[in-house]
User: What shape does this take?
Amino acid sequence: MTRSADPNVVLTGFMGSGKTTVGRLIADDLGRTFVDTDDVIERRHGPIDAIFAERGEDAFRAIEQAVAAQVARGRRQVIATGGRMLLDAANADALTATGRVFCLAADADEIIRRLRADVDGPVRPLLAGDDPAAAVDRLLNERAAGYGQFEQVRTAGRSPQDIAADIIERLGA
Assistant: This one.
């Protein structure tokens, strides 16, 4: 569990699960600072798709680890993480030490629907290829055990406001 009496709220889950949208709502409702780790990475290092293309996934994961350690030191935050960030043990250790983690969960069909609807959203390097639906399904299966270690919040068929209210209620806030 957390060592903090007033833990950060950490949102994890697959891309398109609503971490940023829900995180902003929670931060507004609780009067906390909102931090999106992907935004922090892009401000410091440039677009994530360019990092993957120019430096590779290993370099991106090292950057992600440094950001997780730095963000974990903050207080009274709502933190939306990259979809794989908390599957790395060092990142999970850093962020669970000062935060309560919730995993926003949706099935592959729901994820694909959301990603297709997000035409102005970020480029998703892990979905590049001929069959993004198969990639989502494969990645969800690969990550199931990792995501399963965190408190689950089902998101399918629910509004971001409902999901945020659910998490706030679970916090006892």
Notes: The chain has eight helices and five strands. The mean pLDDT is 90. Helices lie at 19-30, 37-45, 48-55, 57-72, 89-98, 108-117, 132-148, 160-171.
